[in-house]
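Worked problem 6 (solution included).
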Amino acid sequence: MGLCRRRPTCVPLLTKCHRQLRLQWAREHPDCTMDEWKRVAWSDESRFLIHHVDGRVRVRRLTGEQLVPSYTAGHSQAGGGGIMLWGTFSWAALGPVVAVEQTMKAANYLNIIADQLHPYMAFVFPTGNVIFQQHNAPNHKARIVLEWFQEHTDEFHLMSWPPNSPDLNPMEHIWDVMEPQLRAQTPPCPNISALRDRCLDIWYNLSPVMYQKLVASMPRRVAAVLKAKGGATRY
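Solution. The predicted structure is:
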């Protein structure tokens, strides 16, 4: 019958309300031109660990050999430590990427917005009329952060963003490109400092062709959400 055993596809957990809000957002953006998408700066955070095991490694062994060294995979508590990366990009250029070793609180995020995002937006979009995208994490919606954006509405505006919608954010796919590049490097990162340096090196060597293709996918992403009536998409 053509049926095969496969790992289930991971998709965001979407409530009825989430689907309605995603569909509403897609209905508000079906006719955006590429020139309009090119004037959006996308952002996101992702965590990178020193030791990463995705659980998909398989070995062939006999019963009782589960502890034979050649059939085991080393594991460190909390992945041996890691960093949170915040980054932003647009069609025109990669923006800054910031490594955060502690929990990202509202004050940390405000510092990034003021010290990193603001100069980038002013340099890449000197005439203004640009939109900044961020997801709905609590630290993004904190009063001190929203007040800062309100004070800078003459330079750029915040994009309204539907909940649980990583498939609509092309920034998510940049992390997907970076992770295997990081894991392919040898020897493995010995410490947090080396992990940070490697992540930053990978970021600043990302291909413009790659991230411009991600921006160019926005009309298809919007269409996919419309077709799914706000449900999950292949993105």
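Discussion: The first strand starts at residue 40 and ends at 49.
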